[in-house]
Description:
The complex is a heterodimer of chains A (197) and B (476).
Chain A: E1 6-14, H1 21-24, H2 44-47, E2 64-67, H3 79-87, E3 91-94, H4 99-108, E4 111-114, H5 117-129, E5 134-138, E6 143-146, E7 149-152, H6 157-165, H7 169-174, H8 177-185
Parallel strand pairs in A: 1-2, 2-3, 3-4
Antiparallel strand pairs in A: 1-5, 5-6, 6-7
Chain B: H1 5-11, E1 14-16, E2 23-26, E3 29-32, H2 38-47, E4 57-60, H3 77-93, E5 96-98, H4 108-114, E6 123-126, E7 140-143, H5 146-155, E8 157-160, E9 164-171, H6 180-191, E10 199-204, H7 206-209, H8 213-221, E11 230-232, H9 237-243, H10 252-262, E12 275-280, E13 287-289, E14 297-299, H11 313-326, E15 341-344, H12 346-349, H13 352-362, E16 372-375, H14 380-388, H15 391-398, E17 401-402, E18 423-426, E19 441-444, H16 447-456
Parallel strand pairs in B: 3-4, 3-6, 4-5, 6-7, 9-10, 9-12, 10-11, 15-16, 15-18, 16-17, 18-19
Antiparallel strand pairs in B: 1-2, 2-8, 13-14
Enzyme class (chain A): lyase
InterPro entries (chain A): 3-IsopropMal_deHydase_ssu, Aconitase/3IPM_dehydase_swvl, AconitaseA/IPMdHydase_ssu_swvl, IPMI_Swivel, LeuD
Pathway (chain A): Amino-acid biosynthesis; L-leucine biosynthesis; L-leucine from 3-methyl-2-oxobutanoate: step 2/4
Amino acid sequence: xxxxxxxxxxxxxxxxxxxxxxxxxxxxxxxxxxxxxxxxxxxxxxxxxxxxxxxxxxxxxxxxxxxxxxxxxxxxxxxxxxxxxxxxxxxxxxxxxxxxxxxxxxxxxxxxxxxxxxxxxxxxxxxxxxxxxxxxxxxxxxxxxxxxxxxxxxxxxxxxxxxxxxxxxxxxxxxxxxxxxxxxxxxxxxxxxxxxx
Amino acid sequence: xxxxxxxxxxxxxxxxxxxxxxxxxxxxxxxxxxxxxxxxxxxxxxxxxxxxxxxxxxxxxxxxxxxxxxxxxxxxxxxxxxxxxxxxxxxxxxxxxxxxxxxxxxxxxxxxxxxxxxxxxxxxxxxxxxxxxxxxxxxxxxxxxxxxxxxxxxxxxxxxxxxxxxxxxxxxxxxxxxxxxxxxxxxxxxxxxxxxxxxxxxxxxxxxxxxxxxxxxxxxxxxxxxxxxxxxxxxxxxxxxxxxxxxxxxxxxxxxxxxxxxxxxxxxxxxxxxxxxxxxxxxxxxxxxxxxxxxxxxxxxxxxxxxxxxxxxxxxxxxxxxxxxxxxxxxxxxxxxxxxxxxxxxxxxxxxxxxxxxxxxxxxxxxxxxxxxxxxxxxxxxxxxxxxxxxxxxxxxxxxxxxxxxxxxxxxxxxxxxxxxxxxxxxxxxxxxxxxxxxxxxxxxxxxxxxxxxxxxxxxxxxxxxxxxxxxxxxx
Lengths: 197, 476
């Protein structure tokens, strides 16, 4: 995974709540067997509308998405995270993310930042008034800075450390091999098995 | 202090616990399907890793599979490639697979329980959010992303952040014609699509205890639509009876040991939940959705709500958008909404009891002119059982289409889709924009409401049907 320390870029406001992962990447895109090439599927249905915020010239090249509450609800498809990253987003800010989407994002180095709704509103107003405004998402200091706005955010220390270091979860877990072996040795015999090995 | 059911199951799976780190949990059962696994197998290959526990892993094909002409090559080359990729990966890594055409094939969340692999007190994961279904057995079951699928394949564990617990207590008796689907839709409307966020929900109370295993699965299945990490129901005699004798259920001494353990999987009397919700079952009625998220629902007897009635600005805006997308106007009676398509199936309502329930209403009646009805069993086993009972004949005699098992019209990944602007009454779990096909409009309903809607052509419950709708004597 690519490490995330701090990122500065322009931001695009997405004033919609409950943006589910079917909107982020529709199901027919899920037939692909790779992790890339999803950028054209991002918000596919909405992008057919020339007025949709991502289609507006002034937000071209933005790398931070400032979204409405309950972003990423629904399906567990990690493709939603890949689509956002393939399109060029480095961070998403919202007052509330769906759990699975949030977990997926942090495992891929897409920083999902939770801020109070009123702060999200102010950020959206800022980038609506001035699309050239730069937003800094600083994981080292756990802070979002933009215009006159400075907002601290929380992220648990372990997740933050993994992101800052760009650590691969599987390698970390495999260091616990002996604990896994010990656990396996003590599992009850009545637990189900799919095949005899 | 006592522990909740979820805490007990969690504690029994901790491989490693360290201050300031997520617990590392052992996974008892890993279900795979074609959509969310290819990139995970690729990751294993690139790192030179194996599947650690092929004996705790099982795969089936469901999302892409067609429900017609299954003996012919799959027409969509991209879908075909994805299915072939799963077959290749399972062969290479030694994973048991039930492909299209196999008697154990079906929707992954129907297959696990019917094989007896889903058991109380187990941890179950799958790269699919509706894995919450398996919580009906008192399992801790949740959907994961593809990175986590790879993690489980490689290590049979997952590092997991702590959760909160919420009790959803449903007391009283569900009125006639009110099903588990109506109950869960009402729960989601009450707590909202984000209401369960961070929580493992435990459904309890006398109304839940009376539910069959299949009804419990319908409830737990939609926990994710309330944003929950998982949903659970304490195992009891209903659970044990369902499991006994199934292919992978324990036998002999193992059965006795298992049941003894399973009986301990109840929330202690002195355990404290982080949140509690109470529902009076007697107050419930058939429930349908009018909007574009599963929390936007109302009793069938209600009218489409007026967005202006919402105090919260973002809810108001969401309702406005939803009405526009759904082509509805505020104040319109829900019962007067005409549909083009009725879909009975999915991991929510594609089990035998669901098919029986829909068939009992369709028996001797006809699907309304101009309405297309698809009945899609959740698995080949369900299909065979339905055929043995003659349910397929009831459906086809009524003018419905009887299809092969699969996810079908739940999600717009296979040929079964709504056309733009088309409206459905669907027993599936998501009414998101375009979920059932680009531009499609979905109303989530129970199997009973689906069947009554098919007969009348507008959203309706069985109580709206008169005997005059019955064209031929029952039993024909």
